[in-house]
Amino acid sequence: MGRSIPNPIWCQIWKLACPAKVKFFIWRTLHGTLPCRVTLANRHMKVSPSCPTCSRGLEDTKHMLFLCSKAKEVWKRLGMDVIIDKVCEVDLAGEAILEYLLLLPDQDLSIMGYQNEREMIAISAWYLWWKR
């Protein structure tokens, strides 16, 4: 029996220098198990699928983390709005966008001028979930 090769995203998540609750949030998000309003409504729970923050979109992972006006404001202040807008144009799911950002090569992340870019991305995503 051969060994399975671990997905690089899991190695990246578990070595982040941030609280365990943030790592667990990222893990749940990438597994598609966050109870966003769209997911809850699709499971026949009596909840409006609208975003509780902006009321202008359906609250799925992509909207909550990247398309909501509050999310756009956070990413713009962090100087990541251009790269996120570009990735969102590809029409990826929110989980895929988050994974893409966390797996960006160091040289692509270093242009933002932060020391711990991946931690900043993870904590910002958790903040957007928590603040909603």
TrEMBL record:
This is Reverse transcriptase zinc-binding domain-containing protein. InterPro entries: RVT-Znf. Residues 5-75 form the Reverse transcriptase zinc-binding domain.
